[in-house]
Amino acid sequence: MSRSALLASLLVFTAAAGAQQQAAQPARPVAARPAPQQQKLTPEQQAQVTRQDAEITKAAAKVVQLVDTSKTGEVWDGASKVAKNLVNRQTFVSQISADRKKLGAPAERKRVAVTRSAYTAGGQVPAGNYINVVYATKFANAPQPVRELVSFHLDDDKTWRVSGYSLR
């Protein structure tokens, strides 16, 4: 991923989720290798994952709604420090606005996945725990659906905040 794509994809919005819920989440390894077998979750852990997915999905819907209504600056205002350390508000807003202008208005959006990742220091992505909400979105000026991604980072205060928004 190019630095500009990474910068454009980093942003934050508060989502409700507790640290104990994150502790129950299996994380994906950073390296591009097959994931180790995931541990079997207890029914209580699975219920926590399901609740967290619903909360994060609601938060992601708010983010895309703000982007859809040209309120991208508000997304940046609530972003994680991880995102704010990589891109300033003006760059974030102008990059997303330019990308969305090319695509036109969203016509249909379907959530296709909620994924979890953990990154260690020294990589292309800042260290930490992330949850991503992936949409297949049809836009007025795009013949095929576009992958729309909203990422959240678990900040030091144990609050999930938007760490990215990207289109591919």
TrEMBL record:
Residues making up the signal peptide according to the UniProt record: 1-19
Classification via Pfam families: DUF4019
Sorted UniProt keywords: Signal
Low complexity bias: start-end ranges: 24-39
Keyword rRNA-binding: no
The UniProt record lists the keyword Oxidoreductase: no
Name assigned to this protein: DUF4019 domain-containing protein
Organism: Pseudoxanthomonas gei
